[in-house]
Design goal:
single chain, 119 residues, mainly alpha, 6 helices, 55% helix, elongated
């Protein structure tokens, strides 16, 4: 039996990365086109974990991502399309507001204050 001898397991794991691939594709589309061809339906079929991962990807340390996420118009457009600041999910709001604060944009500070003060 394989568990009584040294070596690798006789099973090769294969993982489905289609959910992550959708997040990466949307991030790439937003960064490369400055959000020009984005629409609300982009995340309509996303699961909550995908939305969280997508927001994490937008906070990536890549220079192109950091530059794009400092664009006020892009951030406002993303919030208008995807309504992250209106989400009922606290984790989504946290990640979105973190992204806006890191970008040093003040247009969401009122939302942040209300969210923190009046849960």
């Amino acid at each position: 039996m394989w568990f009584k001898s040294p070596g690798r397991l006789p099973v090769d794991n294969s993982f489905d990365s289609s959910l992550l691939d959708a997040c990466i594709a949307l991030k790439t589309k937003i960064i490369s086109n400055k959000g020009l061809d984005c629409k609300a339906e982009d995340i309509k079929d996303f699961q909550p974990q995908q939305i969280l991962k997508f927001l994490d990807l937008l906070q990536d340390e890549e220079k192109s991502c950091q530059t794009a996420m400092k664009d006020t118009e892009l951030l406002q457009k993303l919030d208008m399309l995807y309504e992250f600041s209106k989400s009922g999910n606290a984790e989504v709001k946290w990640r979105w507001f973190t992204l806006c604060i890191k970008a040093e944009k003040v247009f969401h500070l009122l939302h942040v204050f209300i969210t923190i003060t009046f849960p």
